[in-house]
Amino acid sequence: MFFGAISTGKKENTMTQQAGPLKRFEGNPILTPEQMPFRCYTVFNAGATMFQDKVLLMLRAERCDLHSAFYVATSEDGVHFSVNSQAIDYPLRDMELVYGKAHKNNRFDPRITRIDDTYYIYHFTWTDFGSSVALCWTKDFEHYDSQPHLSVPSNRNVVLFPEKIGGLYARLERPQDIDGTGAIWVSFSPDLKFWGMSRPVAMPRHHWGRHKIGSGTVPIRTPHGWLIIYHGTSLTASTENYYLAAALLDLNDPSQVVASPEEFILAPEKDYECVGQVPNVVFTSGAVEMPDGTLNVYYGGADTRVCLATGSVSELTEYCLSAQRP
Question: Distance between CA 17 and CA 245 in Å, rounded?
Fold first, then answer.
């Protein structure tokens, strides 16, 4: 049996969370390897945006040689998707070749930010020196250009803000040194090429995220601050568990945390979150606000399949404000 299939011998975790600001979609998972129009091992960690009045996901799919590629999927309702069988292919730059392993089959975990009529897609790639940040952009999801390696290793979980802050582009990121600090930082740029003025945003501090934390969805502007959904991990005797949480950052200085609740908003409980390539993982890299106000949060379950949780920007904002950071 494919390792990522739902286990029939494992009793599903019956632990029940109290009603929170995110609700699992009852039909989860919404995309699985078996549903893809191509042979693959896993499909997960999708970037998300609205494009031509449809929900567009950029899927990370691992083929059966364990190389990763991106595929586009679109949906009218945000639940039922049509997947393009052709992988996204954009040109490598000479700099990428210098980094050894970096090639078009080593791209992971895209995050999509729309600014004006351009969609900027941050992702990370493995190199001989560790994980590094790369960027591509498109106007139509058919033609792409790229600017690779926009940070020194090791860096990942980069998310571009949807507007300039103080006249500069801004991004969240998670540099991680050998000490495993695992904190979220913010950096600024005048041109999307040269980044600096980096400042720490948040350190791992909550019990469920004491090992490391990392940004997830593109920040959403609210009257009370930038709403972010991020992940945190904790180590157990046998696994590293991933959780999702929400926070608000200051609109003018996103290095300042307005509110950061102590509790997670989603934990790995269901079989499709606990059984797979990497057990006990809920990990998001994309969310879309639907026309009716529902916030669709797309997340990877056990690094194997795509799942959906729903809420609203207002509910998540109120949830954060009800638990001010001490």
Answer: 14
